[in-house]
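TICKET: design request
STATUS: open
ATTACHED STRUCTURE:
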């Protein structure tokens, strides 16, 4: 295997361990020492639900749980709402689109409740500045922890 690729892969277990050893915080009470770039993990009742990556972790976390965030910003909440309403199949037509779902009288309130739910979850994060390491670590964590709200489908 390629030496450079191996150097990324070799770091994955220790980075995951570092992330899991971090004492969790609440998404609404972020510490001052929050790194700018890296990986974050949402956990609820000891179940790891979603891992993400960002070049601005603070802003990304705020988007996930801000009640006014739309379907493009609160993607984790949107996935929770899709799961809870059994509207998981994406469509690229106006009928059933993400925007229409957000405005749907059944889906909309579930989407808001999902954002409220995320606000009280446990949050962990780790600084990872290299975009390749971020991408590989996000996939590694999602697979290793079997996070149910991550998918790597092309849309």
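STATUS: resolved
RESOLUTION: sequence designed for all positions
ATTACHED SEQUENCE:
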């Amino acid at each position: 295997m390629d030496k450079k690729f191996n150097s990324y892969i070799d770091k994955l277990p220790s980075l995951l361990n570092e992330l899991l050893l971090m004492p969790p915080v609440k998404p609404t009470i972020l510490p001052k020492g929050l790194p700018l770039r890296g990986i974050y993990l949402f956990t609820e009742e000891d179940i790891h639900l979603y891992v993400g990556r960002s070049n601005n972790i603070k802003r990304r976390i705020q988007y996930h749980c801000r009640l006014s965030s739309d379907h493009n910003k609160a993607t984790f909440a949107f996935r929770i709402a899709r799961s809870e309403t059994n509207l998981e199949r994406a469509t690229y037509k106006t009928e059933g689109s993400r925007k229409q779902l957000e405005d749907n009288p059944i889906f909309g309130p579930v989407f808001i409740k999902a954002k409220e739910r995320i606000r009280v979850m446990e949050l962990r994060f780790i600084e990872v500045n290299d975009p390749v390491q971020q991408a590989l670590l996000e996939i590694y964590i999602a697979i290793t922890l079997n996070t149910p709200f991550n998918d790597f489908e092309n849309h």
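CLOSING REMARK: The CA atoms of residues 8 and 133 lie 6 Å apart. Strands lie at 38-44, 47-54, 122-127.
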